[in-house]
């Protein structure tokens, strides 16, 4: 993976960084650690500027996340209920759980979006419920951008400091990402086989 990411960055410059970061957030298997780390190496070599690297990387992150936010926003909270009623068993989810998540997101949505930017397996996934639960567009973009800027700075400076040795990160990012996916799959299967629906206890305020 390292070689083709490197070639695209060298060929596209800041636009290459932007495109890769958009793709990384639409198709999470592309690691931002590798993209911004290589960008940091190029800064150390004098071939890129740190400020413009951060602009390109952060804008790409925001655009990629905004795609999933819009998917959730277009689907909408009201359209979600028939899906939960029909397929909730496979998501181990009931409408009561959705309402709890809605209240939680309404109260702590900004912090959730910001913090999840630092979690490899969930940084993109959080954008979908942000749209579903109608987090404001401006608030979502600002908190996503803020979290992305901090994370991208850390990755770029790691590449800047470590230099060419940072290319070895691909040896570690792959197994870590795989472990996160496997862990999430195991957790899902455990919840799927142990999940039992509540009895019909929904109050009127839980029904839209």
TrEMBL record:
GO cellular component terms listed in the entry, alphabetical order: plasma membrane
Cited Pfam families: VTT_dom (PF09335)
Residue ranges crossing the lipid bilayer per the database entry: 12-30, 51-71, 140-160, 172-190
Membrane topology type: Multi-pass membrane protein
Subcellular location(s) per record: Cell membrane
Main location: membrane
Alphabetical keyword list: Cell membrane, Membrane, Transmembrane, Transmembrane helix
Family matches, as PANTHER family: ALKALINE PHOSPHATASE LIKE PROTEIN, UNDECAPRENYL PHOSPHATE TRANSPORTER A
Protein name according to UniProt: Alkaline phosphatase
UniProt source species: Sphingobium ummariense RL-3
């Amino acid at each position: 993976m390292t070689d083709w990411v490197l070639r695209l960055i060298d060929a596209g410059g800041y636009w290459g960084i932007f495109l890769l970061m958009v793709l990384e957030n639409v198709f999470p298997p592309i690691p931002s650690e590798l993209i911004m780390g290589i960008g940091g190496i190029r800064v150390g070599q004098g071939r890129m500027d740190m400020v413009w690297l951060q602009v390109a990387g952060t804008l790409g992150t925001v655009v990629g996340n905004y795609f999933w936010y819009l998917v959730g926003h277009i689907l909408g909270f009201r359209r979600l209920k028939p899906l939960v009623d029909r397929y909730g068993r496979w998501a181990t989810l009931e409408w009561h759980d959705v309402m709890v998540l809605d209240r939680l997101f309404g109260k702590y949505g900004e912090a959730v979006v910001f913090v999840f930017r630092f979690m490899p397996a969930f940084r993109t996934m959080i954008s979908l419920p942000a749209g579903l639960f109608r987090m404001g567009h401006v608030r979502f973009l600002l908190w996503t951008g803020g979290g992305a800027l901090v994370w991208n700075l850390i990755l770029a400076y790691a590449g800047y400091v470590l230099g060419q040795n940072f290319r070895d990160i691909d040896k570690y990012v792959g197994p870590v990402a795989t472990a996160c996916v496997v862990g999430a799959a195991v957790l899902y299967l455990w919840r799927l086989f142990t999940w039992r629906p509540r009895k019909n206890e929904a109050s009127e305020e839980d029904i839209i």
